[in-house]
Design goal:
The structure is a single chain. The chain is an alpha/beta fold. The chain is about 40% helix and about 10% strand. The protein has 27 helices and 22 strands. Helix 8 links the parallel strand 8 and strand 9. Helix 1 runs antiparallel to helix 2, helix 5 packs parallel to helix 7 and helix 17 packs antiparallel against helix 18. The structure holds glutamine and zinc ion. Zinc ion (ZN) binds next to loops.
């Protein structure tokens, strides 16, 4: 091969290890079983393995500093010395203790996070930094905290250390930095009047110094991630970008910056991006497929374009011939040395290696690509573009035939589902009667006291529950024994709820590992991996379901469990389901049909379950939509479309029942303002929400919207092991009562109780029931 081959970048790879080595090392270190040296040795081994793997797979622009012990945004805070005062840092290199104090709080953090880890517990000692979602992924980062007039100093040599570490192993790497504008924009300040971007002049000298040192160590290219370029930006942010890259280019004329954008197209930031004095620009051509022509037309000569053509956010194998059709002309026009091939974004968001999966259906497996396979795809494309398609004929043929088999497979396409989708009518998404009339009928049937008490669904997942599930999974416990175990747990839980006087009961969800996985495993169209972990935050990883085909429900899922639970109690037992939008948002979703079509399919399947629960006698059915807000698109202009089909999907699920049947929903996060109209349009009879930590402030959205239906503002923070006193909950309910009418108010915790211990749950719920009695004037 005489021709210079095309450069291939990965933009970053998963750091957790193929067998979750990083998690094990972290947990062992945190529990004091192993020391820092052992943790750092594991980290170094994982980096070395990542570099070697990428090199072997044909990646030429191998990243360094994409590794992180916990989170790359936290690493950046440490790099620039953005360490809030409470962590007691006195300057100098940020220690491991300080780092983990920021990540997890400084003492034993008993407050665990909610299902998918949306918030940190209060615990005791120094609290962790706040955590929030990384753009629209299910990765969560530690939110940087800024103060007015804050100064920054270089306080971590990690980028340089990891560059040199790779070099010593023989790899010339392209260090990755989170860009200063995105970093500042992701941060927040207690001082609401401070725009973090005003700190730019203070932070740029640190970035300049890092680039200078990287360059002195031998780095030629540096990848600077500015995903904020795909967001709605104001003039201040655009100016910040121009200032930043002007300063860096002036200070370091020899460093080639690959300005990396991802998670969408540049849209109205295109001109800004193309005006920046950088050597290269990376484009997400999966989400932002349509921007390629405009960029190619407008990009100045000499700008290296990094084409993000392999989906870094999803697990599907690419149709390589199709991609070649699109990019061959670009390569021909700009020249091979002015184009690089890459995934759309860092491969952090996909599992590592498909080859580890031994139980997947072979057809399905042939349609998938995890990080390793995606890098191979890039290198095949590189070969085809350098030496012609013939040089990669075999791989291209395999790719095309996999694409063809997926397009036509009966495992993907189910004509019965297509028929139902075709028969979907608008009235299926509307309850027959307005809320006010339904409410009267439900009241009469349920005969609940005012301030009715209930819980969100799950009760403690004790070590015994987990053990039984894992033994059952390994075949060490028979189906009959496992069922008997679950029945006993449920019975004890139901009996206890009746004893303490809760008004509406739940069965406790002991049979569920995860609110999405449980349903996915029982619907057709879903598959599950053995090792397909992706990082959710820190040492928490999730294994998202693979939603690969048309969704249907072969048989009732929760009806038997519900019947058993209701048979044990006089009080109404809630049917407990996960809603279609949440199932969608926490899965890897097929990319051959639109997300809204997939969501409607799930909605129809869960609707069947709702109808069956009603037929079995359920008077109340809860459909959780914990992840509805999470699915909001990055650009405001796209919000309405999403919310329309998300709400419609929920309503398809909820509207197959009679007026007398009460539909509940639950949401556990905090920015209700953004979606309050959508929540209103969902028209659930009752919604329970998280509000206790905000002292009911989060209710304001509902109050100003004049939310008409019933609402259970959480009065008890389940993220904390602390037991709330009766008086505290009375106070919260009285606050709620000032804004809402008393008939609207339900009494419940913030979220499910699965992460708590029984010893914490018992007194808290006893107090909660007492608080409701106080409000009713019974005490
Ligand atoms: N019903 C679920 C539970 O109680 C809801 C969990 C959630 O909102 N994340 O666990
Ligand atoms: Zn919740």
């Amino acid at each position: 091969m005489s021709k210079k081959s095309l450069s291939i970048a990965s933009l970053g790879v998963p750091r957790i290890g193929p067998r979750r080595e990083l998690k094990l090392a972290l947990e062992s270190y945190w529990s004091g079983k192993t020391d820092a040296a052992a943790l750092l040795a594991t980290a170094a081994e994982l980096r070395a393995a990542n570099w070697a793997r990428q090199h072997a797979l044909g990646v030429t622009e191998i990243p360094s500093n994409d590794f992180s012990l916990y989170d790359q945004v936290l690493d950046t805070s440490c790099m620039v010395g953005a360490i809030p005062e409470i962590y007691g840092w006195n300057g100098g290199e940020v220690s491991l203790d300080t780092y983990f104090a920021m990540a997890r709080g400084s003492q034993q953090q008993s407050g665990e996070a909610c299902a998918h880890g949306h918030s940190h517990g209060a615990g005791h000692g120094v609290p962790a930094l706040e955590m929030t979602k990384w753009f629209d992924t299910n990765y969560h980062y530690m939110v940087p905290e800024f103060t007015r007039g804050q100064t920054f100093t270089l306080s971590s040599t990690k980028p340089m250390d990891e560059y040199r570490e790779a070099k010593a192993l023989g790899y010339q790497t392209r260090p990755v930095l989170l860009g200063p504008v995105t970093f500042l924009k992701l941060g927040k300040s207690k001082d609401a009047t401070l725009n973090p971007l005003s700190l730019l002049p203070n932070i740029l000298p640190v970035y300049t110094e890092v680039l200078r040192r990287l360059s002195a160590n031998g780095a030629e290219w540096v990848q600077i991630d500015e995903p904020c370029l795909v967001l709605d930006l104001d003039d201040t942010a655009r100016r910040a970008l121009r200032d930043t890259y002007a300063v860096l280019a002036r200070a370091l004329p020899n460093v080639k910056i690959m300005l990396t954008t991802y998670f969408g197209d540049l849209g109205n930031n295109l001109e800004t991006a193309l005006s920046l004095p950088v050597a290269g620009l990376h484009l997400d051509l999966v989400r932002g497929a349509d921007q390629l022509d405009a960029v190619v037309e407008k990009a100045r000569e000499g700008l290296v374009l990094s084409l993000g053509i392999i989906d870094g956010r999803n697990i599907w194998r690419a149709d390589l011939e199709k991609i070649l059709e699109r990019i061959e002309p670009v390569v021909a026009q700009r020249g091979r040395d002015h184009v690089m091939l890459a995934p759309s974004c860092s491969l952090l968001h996909v599992p590592i290696d498909l080859e580890q999966e031994m139980r997947l259906d072979p057809d399905l497996k042939s349609w998938l690509a995890f990080a390793v396979q995606k890098m191979s795809e890039l290198s095949v494309l590189g070969r085809a573009l350098t030496d012609g398609r013939d040089a990669a004929a075999e791989e291209l043929r395999a790719s095309s035939s996999a694409a063809e088999s997926r397009r036509t497979s009966p495992k993907v396409h189910n004509s019965a589902v297509a028929k139902r989708m075709g028969a979907l009518t608008p009235d299926m998404a509307i309850r027959a009667t307005p809320f006010i009339e339904r409410r009267a009928k439900q009241q009469e049937r349920l005969d609940l006291p005012s301030y009715p008490t209930t819980t969100i669904g799950s009760f403690p997942q004790t070590p015994e529950v987990r053990k039984a599930r894992s033994q059952f999974g390994k075949g060490q416990l028979s189906q009959a024994d496992y069922d008997a175990f679950l029945a006993r747990e449920t019975a004890a839980c139901v009996q206890w709820q009746e004893e303490i006087g809760l008004d509406v009961l739940v069965h406790g969800e002991f049979e569920r590992n995860d609110m999405v996985q449980y349903f996915g495993e029982r619907l057709s169209g879903f598959a599950f991996t053995q090792h397909g972990w992706v990082q959710s935050y820190g040492s928490r990883y999730v294994r998202p379901p693979l939603l690969f085909g048309d969704v249907s429900r072969p048989e009732p899922i929760t009806v038997d469990t519900w019947k058993h639970a209701q048979s044990l109690a006089e009080k109404p037992m809630k049917g407990m389901l996960t809603g279609p939008v949440t199932i969608l948002n926490w899965s890897f979703v097929r990319d051959d049909v639109t997300r809204d079509a997939v969501c409607r399919q799930i909605a129809l399947a869960i609707r069947d379950e709702v109808i069956d629960l009603e037929a079995a006698g359920a008077k109340i059915i809860q459909i959780d939509e914990a992840a509805l807000r999470e699915g909001l698109p990055l650009r405001r202009a796209d919000w309405q479309h999403y919310l329309d089909w998300a709400v419609e999907s929920f309503r398809i699920t909820a509207s197959g029942v009679r007026d007398e049947t009460q539909i509940h929903t639950h949401m556990c996060y905090s920015e209700f303002n953004d979606i309050i109209t959508a929540i209103g349009n969902m028209d659930a009879d009752v919604i329970s929400i998280e509000t206790s930590r905000s002292k009911m402030e989060l209710l304001e959205a509902f109050v100003s919207y004049r939310y008409p239906n019933d609402i259970g503002p959480g009065v008890y923070d389940i993220h904390s092991p602390r037991c709330p006193a009766t008086a505290e909950m009375v106070d919260l309910l009285q606050r709620a009562g000032r804004h809402l009418s008393p008939e609207q108010i339900w009494v419940n915790p913030d979220c499910g109780l699965k992460t708590r211990k029984w010893d914490e749950v018992r007194p808290a719920l006893i107090n909660m029931v007492e608080a409701a009695r106080v409000l009713r004037g019974e005490l």
